[in-house]
Amino acid sequence: MPNILIVDDEEKLRALLSRIISLEGYKVTDTATIHNARRILESQNIDILLCDVKLPDGNGVDFTREIKEKHPGIEVILLTAYGNIPDGIQAIKNGAFDYIVKGDDNDKLIPLLSRASEKAGLQKRITNLERQLGNQFSFEKIVGTSPALQNAIQLARKVAPTEAAVLLTGETGTGKEVFAQAIHYNSLHQNQAFVALNCSAFSKDLLESELFGHKAGAFTGAIKDKKGLVEEANGGTLFLDEIGEMPVELQPKLLRLLENGTYIRVGDTKEQKATLRIIAASNRDLQQDITQGHFRSDLYYRIAVFSIELPSLRERVKDIPLLAQHFLQIYTAKTNKNIRSISKEAIDALKQNEWKGNVRELKNVIERAVIMEDGDTLHLDSLPFEIQQSKGEHNLPAFHLSTIEQSHIRKMLHYTNGNKAEAARLMDIGLATLYRKIEEYGIK
Hints:
By secondary structure, this protein is of the alpha/beta class. It folds into three domains: 3-133, Rossmann fold, CATH 3.40.50.2300; 141-311, 3-Layer(aba) Sandwich (Rossmann fold); 314-441, Helicase, Ruva Protein, domain 3, CATH 1.10.8. Helices cover 48% and strands 14% of the residues. The protein is built from 19 helices and 16 strands. The strands form five sheets. It has a five-stranded parallel sheet with strand order 2-1-3-6-7, with helices on both faces. A five-stranded parallel sheet has the order 9-10-13-8-14. Helix 4 links the parallel strand 6 (75-80) and strand 7.
């Protein structure tokens, strides 16, 4: 049950309220002054404050504002001997849950406490979820100990608490969105929205609408007003992935948002305002794009206030065993398998691979290998054929390539319950190629 603090200088009334509320199962603490209430709030876990308006050392209406600033999760119910409308209005404005008159509203008190405790409990759950989310995206969750990665993490830690725009560069699959989330959840905006957009996924017109929103009738199919992601991210962080793919014609509108915090929805004439942090990412050489006229230099200098280059997996080979084990734990849990380790031969093969797709490619390889493996150790022959080759032909099982391929396809189809599109994704091949292989091998 919630913990309740009663603050009232009338000793008899305080004792009566304590008795009534305790009989309902609540844990009650009481005091006569705001001074003592502050001390109790700092030392105990209080959920609901039941507070008189007029106290020897202060006013309960003003005290409500102080409480909501310092302890936003506490619900405040104010008691007054003589209710008046201005005090009641101000109490609600200051964040009070309710404002009731002593004596007249006694029968309302217990139901009111019940509703307040429900709200306080909900707020606690939300706070716990936010804390868990912050822990999930903390810098400590980024796997790897190599100097190149640790240097990038150190830079990200330094910029996270600031308001500076950040540009993350590096090859595809190096974890730019992971870094963007860690920066956001370690910033002053951690309790606000984190919104991500891949600029390469939309045409110019659709990208503008996704970013800034549109008014009804702005174009064919725009039957109602739509919020843009800038508005969704207002107060928080907007992550623009592959910003180098943004059409040149749209770049001045993003520049306007960065420079003065204003934008205009598609089809509208009214200027909107937004305060948000931009984190951008690109696997392109934006300096070269500027030279070739594909990217505006003024926009570049606005988004690259603080640049961080993320290392490729080839630059952090010592992290491959750690990452592989990390992904192994994730996918064994998802598949309910009991694969506890990775063989030395498999690790050696993983370390010798080129990893053009970086961490994302390694993640996909481990997912497929977990599906293929039937034992309690992930072996070399569960890895894709091309990675087995990197370990040398003498280590390969004595099977024809077609036999290995058939077995691989059958296991993938079994794992996906016959979903060919998902099987093709896991094997990193086209759907048409998969259908051709199924027909070629007579797989049913």
